[in-house]
Design brief:
The complex is a heterodimer of chains A (214) and B (128). Chain A is mostly helical. Chain A folds into two domains: 68 residues; 97 residues, Helix Hairpins (Orthogonal Bundle), CATH 1.10.287. Chain A contains six helices and no strands. In chain A, 8% of the residues are buried. Chain B has a single domain, classed as Response regulator (Rossmann fold, 3-Layer(aba) Sandwich), CATH 3.40.50.2300. Classes of the chains: A mainly alpha (214), B alpha/beta (128).
């Protein structure tokens, strides 16, 4: 507190019930306001400092986001991962059904055997059926992972919505070089990874293709 | 009272493989009169048309879950006493409690084996 103001306040307190004039009150208010201006100015500097730090943090986040290339995560990586997982579910389902078909055939054949052998074979068939339930569990676990990927996708979408244009501008600086190198490599070796669904080529088609060279 | 081995049983699961497994395991223990449904809605419609001696249902199905089906069955005057076994991967305590509160007869956690299935069938239907 301003020393003059402090002295004035002490005198007033010591004076007890003495009436205070309007001029004195005006002096006190003026002193308070003057002191307060100094305080506000100090606070301003602190707030400004905080804002500057916040601005730096946003710039850093923006820069880090651009190196993460969220648009690639949204447009390529997550859809590719989801497709691969769907293919895993389909493949395990197909394999499980094949195993079960064979087990059912064995079960039918067991009926033609003597009781003792029939029982042994039936026990083995039951164990195959039990083991096949892995497919259901695997499918459920993968579905959970796919659901999580969808959540990540929506979060990435949110980030792109907030910083999209700026991230894209930052990213474009080094994307062209990187893309060029990657495309050249893929083209050179014609790489696609394992195909699934309609894109897949069957073993028969491949055999026919190989035979056509003979 | 002995168990009628020819009674119709309804199995409900959205995984065809799982339906096939349960059907085969039921066959192994002597039940061959088995119908299938792919979700709770289809199962409820089948139950309206036919009196089943037992329902064995998965929980996690869409759009009508196994728990939804169980609640519908228990709320229906004609079906409410039908024995109902839940076979599910949902093994958390709150799930089991919810199923019990809805009136489930027994609860089997996936993956399970033929012995467990037989034990639960015996617990619900009596010795066979």
């Amino acid at each position: 507190m301003d020393p003059a103001l402090h002295r004035h306040m002490s005198e007033l307190r010591a004076a007890g019930d003495r009436k205070v004039s309007l001029a004195e009150i005006a002096d006190i208010v003026e002193s308070v306001m003057t002191g307060l201006q100094g305080e506000v100015f100090g606070m301003d500097i602190r707030v400004f400092g905080e804002l500057e730090a916040l601005n730096d943090a946003i710039k850093t986040a923006r820069s880090e986001l651009s190196t993460l290339s969220p648009e690639d995560i949204r447009d390529e990586h997550i859809p590719a991962a989801t497709d691969e997982l769907d293919a895993v579910v389909l493949a395990t389902e197909t394999a499980t059904n094949s195993i079960m078909e064979v087990a059912e055939e064995i079960e039918a054949l067991a009926g033609e055997l003597p009781p003792e052998q029939q029982e042994k074979l039936n026990d083995a068939v039951v164990r195959i059926f039990e083991a096949c339930s892995f497919q259901d569990i695997t499918g459920q676990r993968i579905t959970k992972v796919v659901r999580t990927l969808k959540v990540i996708e929506s979060k990435v979408e949110g980030v792109l919505g907030a910083f999209g244009d700026e991230v894209a501008r930052e990213r474009k600086k080094d994307l062209d070089n990187e893309l060029g190198a990657r495309a050249a490599k893929v083209e050179e070796q014609n790489l696609h990874g394992p195909a699934s669904g309609e894109d897949a080529t069957s073993q028969d088609d491949i055999d026919k293709l190989l035979a056509s060279f003979d | 009272m002995s168990v009628d081995m020819k009674m119709p049983i309804l199995i409900v699961d959205d995984y065809k493989t799982m339906l096939r497994i349960v059907r085969n395991l039921l066959k192994q223990v002597g039940f061959e009169n088995v119908d299938e449904a792919a979700d709770g809605g289809e199962a409820f419609n089948k139950m309206k048309e036919k009196q089943y001696g037992l329902v064995i249902s998965d929980w996690n199905m869409e759009p009508v879950t196994g728990l939804d089906l169980l609640k519908q069955v228990r709320a229906d005057g004609n079906m409410k006493s039908t024995p109902f076994i839940m076979i599910t991967a949902e093994s958390k305590t709150e799930n089991v409690i919810a199923a019990k509160e809805a009136g489930v007869s027994n609860y089997i956690v996936k993956p399970f084996n033929a012995e467990t299935l037989k034990q639960k069938l015996t617990a619900v239907l009596g010795a066979f």
